[in-house]
Amino acid sequence: MIPAEVPDEAAEPDGLEDRLRRFATIWSRAIFPATATSLTRPEFEQHLLPLARRLRDALHDKIFDAAPAHGVGAALVAVHCTDPETLARSLGVVDAYLVLYCGASADPADELAAEELRARCARLQHALAAGFALALRERTLTEQEAIARSALTARGVAEDALHATEARFRAVFEGAAIGIGIADLDGHVLEVNNTLTQMLGGLEHHVRSRNVSEWVHPDDGPQVWRMHGELVRGERESFRTEKPFFRNDGTVLWTNLTVSLLRDVDGVPQYQLALLEDTTERRLLNLRLRYEATHDALTGLPNRTLFFERLEKALTPARETPKEPAGETVKEAAKATPTPTRFGLCYLDLDGFKAINDSLGHSAGDRMLVEVADRLQSCATAPGEMVARLGGDEFVALTTGPDSVREVNDLASRILGALATPISLDGREFTVRGSIGIVEGKAGEFTAAEVLRSADITMYRAKSAGGNRFEHADAEADARAITRHGLTTALPTALERGEFFIEYQPLVHLADGKVHGAEALVRWRHPTHGVLSPDRFIPLAEHTGLIVPLGRWVLEQSVRQARAWQEELAAGAFAGPVRINVNLSPAQLHHPGLVADTVEVLERVGLAPGSLCLEVTESALIGADEDLLKPLRQLAEMGVDIALDDFGTGYSNLANLRRLPVSVLKLDRSFTQGMQQHPADAVDIKIVEGIVSLAHSLELTVTVEGVETGTQADHLRRLGCDTAQGWYYARPGPPEMLHTLSLADAV
């Protein structure tokens, strides 16, 4: 009898308890027909009620823990619910009804979102299945130990019966719950019990008339018949193995087989005794659980786990056993030599899949993934080919063979061709595009992690090139990508560790050649890669968002340096510069704290706004709206100069200069390279002359970058350019270097 459930002092409201009981009723009705319990269905339902309450409580715990569901799975096995159908039906009931009937909480303040409840429900199902499988395995081990003891007992009893009385032997033989058969050393079946006859699905005389050798099965392990030969020759007393048999109707019976040698009173081998335990249902359950653990639930494709198993196998060199020369021992002949094989991997990521999820919803996205999976499966049908889903919209296709270069290219082409046909979703057609990274090579040269990382990097290279294409892995490109990733991950701590520093390049008045100011240029003193220029890490900082704190640090350090120069100038120890130019990235322009941060730094350091010039690239202001220009206007109204950097490279409309709050044009070096020699390029002169004339008419000063020769500087001075910078005057360096230049100018 099942003891009556003791009500809890803090019982749930009647509504929640009634819903819990309805859930338990549905559960009991679903699995009771598949149980082997002696309980009635109402008694069985009362047994399930506390298990249902454990699932309900786990669903609503503030700190989610799936362990109670693990125990529920074990409890099912404990009450003899061991049929595979019991697990399948239990998971179905939990999936369909747990959230429906038990989703509400006794405390409205603890209500969880529907998505969180479904996610928890899914994890509870996984834990329940795992607990069921583990408990079933432990039960199996216990039964196997009992069978082993039974085998020993049966062997001893059989020997005693053969030597003593047939009656005693028959009592054990016929009453055993496992199949028992006796054969002579030639394999002729002499006796079988009723259990074995039923297991093999035939009449007793059909079984007794056969020879043991007739029960060969294609899935027999190579050691089975070798051990059997040793046993009948008297070289071993017994062996145990897992072996399949064909039943009379052609179906397969899987067994745990134990075969023992029976000797006569003189110790001479006389009979062989076979004990068979039917493990077919257990094996089918294990195969099903294995399938669910290694296949994607949505698409049915192999998942990441199974794919890595196949990839590891493909990356392991095959071994070939040589023919045995005359006189060579079996052990020596079994030595194998590695035979290198080749592999090809396609790493596919769908282009623009997130937009479909966002616009049509995840249900439509799932249907698209299923369709894509079907098409990919149809592309990989040759021997040695497989397709798997890694997760999300990422798929992989693997091929092996001696001509893997051609095969993997053909496979990638077939995949892109299969994706080209539009997919119909909700009455609309969508064209799916994909980017594929290909890695091909010889087995034994790479690890699975290395192959997948290289394929992933290569796939992003294909996506950056426009998508809907495939690219082959390139070791140098991989190395650059890995370096970029390393720099990206090191950026946040680099600022904290003080690895950044600033160099200054002088800005020189072309009219008198005196230092007018300096541009601050940030550098990174990387502990491994040495000093890195801004083009190596500024794009990474913009991508990660670190550009805002880094830019604030550069601004403060540069403003402090300008203030120090002004103090030295006031003391007569320094002839300049008095202005500092600081670069702003596009990400900083969009940061809402730009104006406040700049004002705070200037006021705290004590530098006048007119001593600061913020440089913004022309490309960042192309098509800029008033919201983007507003902070620049505010800074310009305070007196901060705004310089339009790299002017002439962004294809901007010159008429737009009137609406931009800029006071300085920095002319890109490409316009003045033709002036580095004499005679100067006439076209370059005309272009620069026109730009200078336009800038001055708009009351803008002109600064020229990249001045490298005295001839170039003379041309620019005659054309009316105001200031210049470049290696002709000085390379970027520490602030002391500009101090020396200024003293030289003063002299």
Written account of the structure:
- The chain contains 26 helices and 23 strands.
- With 747 residues, it is an alpha/beta fold.
- Strand 13, helix 16 (448-464) and strand 14 form a beta-alpha-beta unit.
- Helix 2 (41-60) packs antiparallel against helix 3 (67-78) and helix 2 (41-60) packs across helix 5.
- Residues 1-13 and 321-339 have low confidence and may be disordered.
Kindly name the structural category.
alpha/beta
Please state the overall shape, judged from the principal axes of the Cα atoms: elongated
Cα-to-Cα separation, first versus last residue: 110 Å
Name the helicity range: 40-55%
The amount of beta strand, in percent, is: 15-25%
Radius of gyration: 40 Å
Q: Write out the strand line-up for the largest beta sheet, numbering strands in chain order.
A: 15-16-18-19-20-21-22-23
Question: Sheet with the most strands?
Answer: 8 strands, mixed, barrel
Number of E strands: 23
The chain-level mean pLDDT equals: 83
